[in-house]
């Protein structure tokens, strides 16, 4: 039952992702038509540089007036792959108002204004899909939203930024320092000239907000996500991690509090046991580990970025939105019914690996242990090692049991006040156990 | 916008999976209602043994008359977790005819009669969902069918049977033989008293048929799947695998032929490089690796069986089917538009690891190499080793380049005719490269 009038699709942005979307829409037009039940037609492509040669795209479709394009009124779907907040946000809401559904890959916008955009979609009876916004090609939002719709997610633990995973993997496998590994990532095109969004965790934090919102049926904004970058991870940290049978990953962690009525979302580097499935995720790959009540431990793995992988996710959404349209229905929208409290970082409970430089003399361990006890942080293991360099200093590595982040912070503050503690060399959370 | 009239759900079967489904429907009723947009009510439970105590299920709902239950006419969804061909098939089609959609976990039935059941669903305007039929809790069919709907799948490589993965993992990690590992699996409850369906690959073959059908938009029946069990894998095979940097897994492999117009599906043990993401799948876990044109390499990992994990998949489908119902729509049904040819095993192209017992004298390697050349099978590496036991025998391990299975079979037949070849100790395919 093939409908012959094509569904009209506009493309906003024709860079790495957009050009792949256009290419696949052309080369696999027959497959898409068969899977949707109607042909899809590229009706317009909004670009910033109209003079650039775009192979396989009819020049007559190119326009610099994105606003006029989304206002045409005859569009079925608008694909937004511009990125950033504006003009993307206004173009999306304008598209809804003019009767089109939207497929977006825009994590920053969705993390910032997801609820408002969903509301606008509902107001105009349109769909808003954005599988490509998190973990590129990896089917993740649809499984979380639909496949696990009958389950109860406890925790989502994700490597959702390929650049930082590439850097950390290099540091782990070659012993390189951060700067050296970053330089290699830049040379190979895995890191941008300004890597801030990646290495400071902004990109991962946006994805964490989106994941937490979907996993816990609760609005989680980008400002709710505690964020620490990975620029201060050192080769020494990797040595410490290896001594514990761990590696170090930049993780996006979304989890329920112990009482079940609160959730938290955070991004920071963490030690992760080598036996954990995420520990084996190499190079620029992404993977998301989900722990839920009934399903248990699931992992989704794949390329988290790149033109073709991201286009795959965009086109999967395009097919879904087109099918919904032909059925006269819309897909599942925002689900925020649970309305759980979003905790601050102080309430997050996890384990810690703390390296201290201390005076190499008797009684230091007792002093340090007393501080931990006073703050209610229980110690799991301690490893003390004289430097043997005549400095009179030793290093003390403490791994704690689970404790609230606030308690750990007060512990560290108190430790810094001890005369015998010369410095806190590093503090790293230990996850995945 | 919560509808107050509940959706009525009947449960066929109340064993390990069914009782978990009923439990979650009760304990998480509020979550399910919020996610669906209407409450769901357990309207009846068909069982074989009505006298068994079933905690948390109102005894008034229990019936032994499954046929009468699915004919009630007021049901919205029937959940079939009986398994097997009959009476499951008749109950499902009866449910459709009486206005209910169906969620099933029945791989054997779907692999055998999936097309007919889909046709019956369409005829009556109902949904047929069966995420739980393949790889238990792992969201797999929905991602393949929906998330990758705009992509072009080349190959699906899966560990889809937990029992055999547990056995092979034990053999690999402990050096145990097949029987010893099977005994441990049985003692721990990972293998059934009669393990035939698992160890002979019947279970995996049913899943391969379902996966191939969805991945390639082509009808693939259970009889189209080439099936070899793993009962003949030996400790010596694992030693050979390790020497190649491989492990051995029972794989379900669905792939396109080189020309793109044919597909094949097969289940057999195979050597897999340790660097392949599937090689790290331990114990009874399942994982499915998907290679597609745009998305690249994806992997889905999780528990492949068990009451709660399977119930998670069933309930995800229940939520989807109920949402469709409230929207007055049905979800994507069977997609078989591509109608590709299903190749026999002879046309499958892969690599082979062959261990031969040969006479330990000059010229044998030349003879053997000639046979391979005559059959058009190109040799990648050869390793020759005298036994040193005075037997006058040596072992010869040949690893081939990619060749059609038929050519390999003729090669082996010709090798057996050589006087200098005392025996073919093992033949194993090498995948995942």
Q: How many structural domains of chain A? A: 3
Main structural class of chain A: alpha/beta
Query: How would a crystallographer describe the biggest sheet of chain A?
Result: 12 strands, mixed
Q: How many β-strand stretches of chain A?
A: 18
Counted by DSSP, the helix tally of chain A is: 14
| CATH homologous superfamily (4th level) name of the largest domain in chain A | Dihydrodipicolinate Reductase, domain 2
Largest interface: A-B, 58 and 58 residues
- Rg of chain A (C-alpha, Å): 24 Å
Description:
The structure is a homodimer of 433-residue chains. With 433 residues, chain A is an alpha/beta fold. Chain A has 3 domains: 7-134 and 308-327, NAD(P)-binding Rossmann-like Domain (Rossmann fold, 3-Layer(aba) Sandwich), CATH 3.40.50.720; 141-303, Dihydrodipicolinate Reductase, domain 2 (2-Layer Sandwich), CATH 3.30.360; 348-430, ACT domain (Alpha-Beta Plaits). The first copy, chain A, has 14 helices and 18 strands. The first copy, chain A, has helices at 16-27, 29-36, 66-70, 88-97, 107-123, 141-147, 162-174, 178-187, 196-199, 202-216, 235-243, 307-327, 364-374, 405-416; strands spanning 7-12, 40-46, 62-63, 77-80, 101-104, 128-129, 153-159, 225-227, 246-256, 262-273, 285-292, 296-303, 341-342, 349-359, 379-386, 393-400, 403-404, 421-430. In chain A, the strands form 2 sheets. In chain A, strands 7, 8, 9, 10, 11, 12, 13, 14, 15, 16, 17 and 18 form a 12-stranded mixed beta sheet that branches. Chain A has a 6-stranded parallel beta sheet with strand order 3-2-1-4-5-6, sandwiched between helices. The model of chain A has no long low-confidence stretch (mean pLDDT 95). Chains A and B meet through α2, α6, β12 and α12 of A and α2, α6, β12 and α12 of B. β12 (296-303) of chain A pairs antiparallel with β12 of chain B.
């Amino acid at each position: 039952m093939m409908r012959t009038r094509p569904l009209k699709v506009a493309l906003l942005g024709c860079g790495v992702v957009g050009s792949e979307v256009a290419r696949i829409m052309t080369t696999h037009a027959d497959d898409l038509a068969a899977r949707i039940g109607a042909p899809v037609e590229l009706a317009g492509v909004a670009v910033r540089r109209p003079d650039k040669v775009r192979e396989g795209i009819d020049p007559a479709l190119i326009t610099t007036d994105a606003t006029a394009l989304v206002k045409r009124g005859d569009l079925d779907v608008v694909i937004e792959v511009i990125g950033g907040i504006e003009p993307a946000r206004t173009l999306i809401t304008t598209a809804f108002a003019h009767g089109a559904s939207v497929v977006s890959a825009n994590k920053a916008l969705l993390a910032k204004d997801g609820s408002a955009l969903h509301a606008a979609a509902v107001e105009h009876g349109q769909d808003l899909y954005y599988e490509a916004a998190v973990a590129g090609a990896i089917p993740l939002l649809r499984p979380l939203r639909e496949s696990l719709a009958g389950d109860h997610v406890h925790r989502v633990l994700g490597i959702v930024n390929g650049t930082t995973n590439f850097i950390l993997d290099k540091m782990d496998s070659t012993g390189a320092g951060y700067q050296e590994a970053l330089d290699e990532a830049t040379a190979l095109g895995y890191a941008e000239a300004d890597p801030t969004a990646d290495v400071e965790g902004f990109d991962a934090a946006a994805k964490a907000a989106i994941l937490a919102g979907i996993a816990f049926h609760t609005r989680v904004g980008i400002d709710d996500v505690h964020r620490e970058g990975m620029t201060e991870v050192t080769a020494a940290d990797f040595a410490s991690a290896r001594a514990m049978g761990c590696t170090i990953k930049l993780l996006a962690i979304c989890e329920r509090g112990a009482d079940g009525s609160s959730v938290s979302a955070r991004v920071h580097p963490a030690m992760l046991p080598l036996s954990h499935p995420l520990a084996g995720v190499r190079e620029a790959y992404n993977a998301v580990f989900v722990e839920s009540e009934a399903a248990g431990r699931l992992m989704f793995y794949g390329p988290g970025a790149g033109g073709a992988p991201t286009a795959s996710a965009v086109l999967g959404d395009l097919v879904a939105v087109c099918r919904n349209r032909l059925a006269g229905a819309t897909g599942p929208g925002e689900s925020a019914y649970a309305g759980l409290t979003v905790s601050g970082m102080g309430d997050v409970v996890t384990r810690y690996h703390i390296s201290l430089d201390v005076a190499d003399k008797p009684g230091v361990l007792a002093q340090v242990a007393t501080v931990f006890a006073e703050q209610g942080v229980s110690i799991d293991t301690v490893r003390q090692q004289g430097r043997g360099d005549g400095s009179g200093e030793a290093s003390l590595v403490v791994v704690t049991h689970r404790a609230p982040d606030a308690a750990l912070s007060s512990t560290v503050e108190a430790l810094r006040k001890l005369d015998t503690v010369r410095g806190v060399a590093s503090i790293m959370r230990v996850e995945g156990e």
